[in-house]
Amino acid sequence: MYDAGKVILGIVVFLALVTFPLWYNLAGEVSVAAPELEKAEGSQCVQDAEWMRGHHMDLLDDWRDEVVRDGERYFVGPDGQRMEKSLSNTCLSCHVNKDKFCDRCHNYMSVDPYCWDCHVIPKEVM
Amino acid sequence: MNLFFSLVVIAVLIALPWLLVGAAGLDYLFGVIVPYVALAVFVVGLIMRVLQWARLPVPFRTPTTCGQQKSLPWIKPSRLENPHSTLGVIGRMLLEVLFFRSLFRNTRSELRDSSRLTYFADKWLWAGGLAFHWAFLIVVARHFRFFLEPVPWCVSVMEGLDSFFQVGLPIIYLTDVIIIAALTYLFFRRIINPRLRYISLAADYFPLLLLLGIAVSGVWMRYFDKTDIVGIKELTMGLVTLSPVVPEGISALFFVHLFLVSALLIYFPFSKLVHAGGVFFSPTRNLANNNRVKRHINPWDYPVKVHTYEEYEDEFRDVMKAAEMPLEKE
Amino acid sequence: MAEDVKKPEELIQIDYGPPKRSWMDPTVKFERGSYNYAAVKDNQEYLSLPFPRKWQPYEDDWQLPDGWEEIIFKGFKERLEKYRSLRIFMDICVRCGACADKCHFFIGSGDPKNMPVLRAELLRSVYRNDFTTAGKVLGKFAGGRKLTVGVLKEWFYYFYQCTECRRCSVFCPYGIDTAEITMMARELMNLIGISIEWIGTPVANCFRTGNHLGIQPHGFKDSIDFAVDELEELTGVRVEAPINKKGAEILFVAPSADYFASPHYYTLLGYLQLFHEIGLDYTWSSYASEGGNFGLFHSAEMMKRLNSKIYMEAKRLGVKWIIGGECGHMWRVVHQYMDTLNGPADFLEEPVSPFTGTRFENTRATKMVHISEFTADLIHHNKLKLDPSRNDHWRVTYHDSCNPVRAMGLLEEPRYVINSVCNNFHEMPENTIREQTFCCGSGAGLGTDENFEMRMRGGLPRANAVQYVHDKHDVNILLCMCAIDKATLPPLLEYWVPGVEVGGVHEMVGNALIMKGQHDRPTDLRGTPYEQDGKEGDDNV
Does the pLDDT of residue A123 top 70, yes or no? Predict the structure, then answer.
């Protein structure tokens, strides 16, 4: 083998990169499972949970546009009740702990939503 | 024909997971077994390939010199285009690997009025190639948020920069746009340019289509047909920590994406894609032009039949003598 | 020959559009003017090469030896194991097409198989078929081709339509060097006795007599002596030109055309003047009377066989170091191969200029200095009395020869010399000089008359660039430092750019060099009288 040193160094770097996640996660000694979310206080969400997992950001985005641009502040919830399109007042009234609900997944997925750039986090959900 | 063949293969690669995960419930096969096999083939295959190259001798030192040599002290040598030291070679290789230096030289020749040849700088291939490779690197690096827990700050910073313009929801990554645009360009230039169409093999269309399939399925999943990515991260974390699980509720589209990535990994070591490793072994680029300073050894050198001076003088002694030339033997 | 040569207007109607048929179907027609004759049987025998026979490329039956496919397969396998370059170049091409229009033969012919990528694919397709899993399983779909007589004929046609100039390798993102691929393909063909006459004959000559032209020792001495006499007539100075002189400090090796062909000859006069004027203690050698090495165009083994003479002769004569003359591929061999092939040169000393004290550190191991390095150093240290106005009748441009540029990096030394001895120097367009220089179209053994049309095609980009400076700056001479250039550029320019001469750099040095004890020199080295009304004539009035 020629240039053995350089070739072996290259292979070691390659292997280190490929297996990096394994070492990193083992060294972290943290649970790698999806985070447990705190149970919501209400009985029913505005959409079913499965849909919400993938699309909650679309819902909030739509709400924002409808409220801010068109002034449509209310919608009819799944149980026929009139509800306010509001992150702080509606969503967080059931999901009372941002830290144990929103943040857990967002941190797990390294997502940094800009909701809280404008919205003040209510004291009681901090 | 080559294009058609590639399209058919890609269609099959997409249809397989799409149909089988949904209908036959082969989640575990496509979510765990195939990715593991693919990664193993990729790692072992690429290392074998590299070792195969490394075992081969480099009998001669033949760098392609693209600038002034180092000779007289008052002539400025071109240290990167014609490196005479290891440092220069490293610089040259970095320019080559990170910025595609040689491709940057590209020109297009044209014969005008059947009389004058002209040469234009033509940077499109360079730009397209560089855009694709860098975007691909960043996209892959970004995916480490699916493989690491906690997600390290550098990955988050990269994501932040990549979504600098804060357009769309989720925010559109620049590299997603760039990689698809670049691959589309690289693909269509093969089809539209007759000269390139003429030289293109199935092995040229296929990787481009495969990469496009991967990029488009990924983009589709992120922006259009959203899915539960927490579940996906559970799956990927399970894979990288060697405790695989396949959570419920992951869309078929994800399995298509994963299967195409697996196909790429398997295809990689046996195709032209090995240029990624091979470029480091290219003897016209990775050697210093110090030939007359330092002797290069050919490991398989062997003695050859030569014509010695004695044989020469024996044959020509008479005429040399007549011409009064000096002789070894009178 | 002249009557059936196409006219330039006709030849330049080039169709760059690729044909309908896939390149994988071999189609070669051996038409007059675009191929080389086969190597002569006697020479093949003299060199103990395999399967010597009488055959010609245009014949249907090439009288291939039994089992020739197996011979090539084995030879291919052997080379894949001996050359990392070959394996890498077979494996990593992505067919990006950057090299396509960088080849002078493609630009001049439009033949798609003259695109470096397809030239390499001719070999690569067989590699894939015989040596890769994908090729063995998928065959044509993986771009594999079986080696057939048709494919072999294609190899012959196109690998003897590559001048190993390495221009494509400058542009390739992986540095894939078609010269290397061509060398390997030619080696493979040699194994079954397929080579060309214009390589076989010079190689056999060189092996026997020490030079490509087959000049025997007394003929060599005659030529040098004749030049000494003529120089005396031109300058009034009698120079010494020792041959086979033991104990000289320096051995001088030049391409044989320098002392036997024109316009090379004027460069020889320049060398002789220069060496005399500085009082160099040197010698020529009749045994190593060839700097060039057509073995390079044949095989690594043949290159070694021919090159061995230089060091052996340096040792026998007991010189301290070596200077090499103006030659292109010679410097590819000297710079990149000689020490590896026939070194170490531990019996020589590290070259030091006896006049300036400059240590040529860049040749510490090989101990052979390029004459332009040597001369540039002399001029830089004001060791020469030069009158550049003696070249005022020349409006010069400079052709970088492929090998010294792309296998060495000799760019500034010749330019420095030219600028010191000429007042009117104009560069050709930047995409045609330095590392992007275009080949003369006749290198690597292709400079034959029977290959005339292809040579004119291959030389088109070079000629076209000369045309540009001829039109723009009235350039009337193309300088170069390569014996093949000096032999093949004159017909090229006569064909495409009539009115431009070809000359060597040291011819210009000779013209400009003021010699001690010279008489009035009314003509330049070519015997062309200087005009009497200019300042040249002032002394004579």
Answer: no
